[in-house]
Amino acid sequence: MGKNIPELYGSLVFNDKVMRNKLPKDVYKALRKTIENGTHLELDVANAVAVAMKEWAVENGATHFTHWFQPMTGITAEKHDSFITPTGDCEINMDFSGKELVKGEPDASSFPSGGLRATFEARGYTAWDPTSPAFIKDGTLCIPTAFCSYSGEALDKKTPLLRSMETLSREAVRLLRILGRDDITRVLATVGPEQEYFLIDKDLYKKRKDLIFCGRTLLGSPAPKGQEMEDHYFGVLKPRISAFMHDLDEELWKLGIPAKTKHNEVAPAQHELAPVFETANIAADHNQVTMEIMKKVAEKHGLVCLLHEKPFEGINGSGKHNNWSLTANDGSNLLNPGKTPAENTQFLLFLTAVIQAVDEYADLLRVSVASAGNDHRLGANEAPPAIISIFLGEELSAILDSIENDTFFKDPGRILMSAGATVLPHFIKDNTDRNRTSPFAFTGNKFEFRMLGSHASVSGPNVVLNTAVAEILSQFSDRLCNVPKDHLHDEIMSLLKDTIRSHKKVVFNGNGYTDEWIEEAQKRGLANLRSSADAFPKFISPKSMDLFTRHQIFTEEEIRSRYEIFLENYRKTIYIEAKTLVEMAEKEFLPSLLAYTGDMIKIAFAKQNFLSRTASDAEKFFIEHLSSGYEEAFQLLSDLKSSLCTAQAISDPLKNAQYCHDTLLSSMEKLRATLDDLETRMPSDYLPYPTYDQLLFSI
Ligand code: ADP
Ligand code: MG
Fold first, then answer.
1. Does one domain contain both 369 and 295?
2. Maximum Cα–Cα distance across the chain
3. In this predicted model, what pLDDT tens digit does every residue of 401-460 receive, in sequence order?
4. Which residues form the domain of 132?
5. For the CA of 436, the nearest ligand
6. Residue whose C-alpha is closest to residue 321's, from 434, 484, 157, 475
7. From the alpha carbon of 325, which atom of ligand 1 is closest?
8. Of 60, 418, 431, 696, whose CB count within 10 A is highest?
9. Per-residue pLDDT reduced to its tens digit, 148-200
10. Is residue 204 one of the residues assigned to a domain?
């Protein structure tokens, strides 16, 4: 029996339909107004909403509620309170008030605050975000909330995102008004995050400390087969994977998460899920829930879902493509070029504003995707390079050229595509081809920012993107606002020309993976911030401070505290990896190696006695190799331990991060290289953990 998906969809969400059914008309209207226009919500409205919400939640099996928030740990947090209120002799009511809906007071002292909140001042507040619908997860009503300190500083990922969306809307509307679009009152940033992940067998996972503690393998030589046959991408789904994806879709649909596309990715055991886009805020919330549900559903199928950016050496890592656009309240997409983009000045203004924003604030975009995990992708030999450039495609590039040079743009017209065989349908060709190597690509009616790490929240990158674009739109409006109507078109053309001239250096339509591009980018003056340690300081630069404080996205203290948290996360992640590698080498690998070497020597001796001959050259060579490997590994292990001690003694957080990147990680890599080589010489029975071929090819 097929399930009724439309009925299933959103069944665990306090969605519009439920609200309309459950709320008194005036309350419903007031709430809608808040959701749509961002207006303030009165307490009596909140009280009425709380009653309806609780009733609905209890009907759907919920016993608890939680203010669900996104602290700076990068994952979500929840503290569950039951609805019960004892009323006397063993009796209770199920209660929930407007006050409980609107505000929570979790003890905030154990969340990262980057020095914003001393532990003696542990009070933190969570505040209901009515623009993101409440939902039921595991019998608990989850209320999406923002999280701030007693003195009002943001301690989470949601608050700045909401602030940046408001700023962007205001600036976009202002520019549209100048263009005569009085009908537009609100503009929403929309986001569709494509999520990559790996699935491996749970029993194998449990045998590897590195996967358990770090989410990635710190050791392991490549399997005989990697991704070179290009046979996994879009390949047929194996039954176990297909069953997982099926369950995952259903769980997500129940939560109103519009999971749309699923497929195998390039690397063996790698997959992808793409939802339909939503407002940036809801997309960010939904992406967090998606990652959580992926892990849960995987467990049920005897699998483990790895969201780390680089779980395995030698094959692709995982990213998250942040598809981003702007939707006006009439439903139109402001980045839609239309049939004749060359004449669409509104589109061209928004397009060039994004180009300028990305060029001017490339360093902040780079910071927004920086993490210890993502360092293994960006600037390494895969995925987008660490240099930020924009892919526009031929047609748009030609249009911008013609504006810059006052030449005539000949519209090629829509090209009818024919695949050559008459039975195949003809269709109209897209105006951009795909370019998989660009970190920031225009893909028809949206930009796709591809540098995000697979496990990170999408909030940070969208905060930067929204704010940077808002800043440029505001500059555009300043220039155009006092221009008389009959000169407006000329002034817009000259603004476009100036913008293209100054910022076309960030446009690059070629292959972003080549060395030539790195050279060329340097000539163009584009930043190449290879590691997180290189990138983080840009966040506290005067330019960053100016941008974020002027638009009231962050205060200076909030910026500094986030900077501290970035560095702290980075350092702690690498410490945990180093300590895990030390343990694996010391307690698992080297003892196994010793045991194997010992057994080899015993066999050689036994042969000597039994066959009355001395050890053969092969035996000697082999034992010699294992023994010298042991010596070498032992030395590299001591080096790693002492690098770790040195790192822990560096008190300056930035110097510490740099040391972690330059020295500690390279100590780890050296030890790994030696152990991986020894691994190839040891029989499976002696190896203390499952190898790459088992991890990647056992499903
Ligand atoms: P691909 O990147 O493989 O071409 P799609 O064209 O299907 O994939 O789009 C990828 C993602 O882009 C999806 O999540 C989709 O919902 C999202 N997307 C489409 N239009 C917009 C938009 N206007 N704003 C934000 N995201 C969008
Ligand atoms: Mg894509």
1. yes
2. 106
3. 999 998 888 776 666 666 666 666 666 666 566 677 899 999 999 999 999 999 999 999
4. 5-155
5. 2
6. 434
7. 24
8. 696
9. 988 888 999 999 999 999 999 999 999 999 999 999 999 999 999 999 999 99
10. yes
Q: Is 216 in the pocket of ligand 1 (CB under 6 A)?
A: no
Ligand 1 site, residue 442, Cβ cutoff 6 A: no
For 134, other C-beta atoms within 10 Å of its C-beta total 25
Which among 466, 385, 381 has a CA at the least distance from the CA of 191? 466
Residues 626-685: tens digit of each pLDDT:
999 999 999 999 999 999 999 999 999 999 999 999 999 999 999 999 999 999 999 999
Give the span between the Cα atoms of 276 and 199, in whole angstroms: 23
275 lines ligand 1 (CB under 6 A): yes
CATH code of the domain in which 65 resides = 3.10.20.70
Token pair, residue 333, equals 């997409």
**Amino acid, res. 157:** K
Asked if residue 604 and residue 512 are part of one domain, the reply reads: no
Q: Which structure tokens are listed for 592?
A: 């196994």
Work out which ligand 1 atom sits closest to the CA atom of 336. 23
Amino acid at 12: L
SS3 (DSSP) at 425:
coil
Ligand 1, residues 165, 279, 323: which to mutate, most atoms within 8 A of Cβ? Answer: 323
Same domain, 259 and 237: yes
Residues 6+ apart with CB under 8 A from 484: none
| Euclidean distance between CA atoms 202 and 348, whole angstroms | 51
Q: What is the DSSP letter of 417?
A: E
How far apart CA 258 and CA 256 sit, in angstroms, is 6
State the distance from the centre of ligand 1 to the C-alpha of 192, rounded, in angstroms.
Answer: 6
* Greater model confidence, 2 or 32: 32
The reply to whether ligand 1 has any atom less than 6 angstroms from the CB of 191 is: yes
CB 547 within 8 A of CB 364: yes
Query: Which residues make Cβ contacts (< 8 Å) with residue 603, sequence separation at least 6?
Result: 619
Q: Which residues contact 397 (CB under 8 A, 6 or more apart)?
A: 507, 509
Residue 62 pLDDT > 90: yes
Cα–Cα distances in angstroms (integers) from residue 345 to residues 160, 194, 301, 478, 482, in the given order: 31, 30, 52, 17, 18
- Per DSSP bridges, beta strands 278-279 and 187-201 are antiparallel
Band the pLDDT of 272: cuts 50, 70, 90.
very high
CA–CA dist 132, 134 (Å, integer): 7
Taking alpha carbons only, the member of 290, 251, 285, 292 closest to residue 272 is: 290
The domain spanning residue 690 has which CATH number? 1.20.120.1560
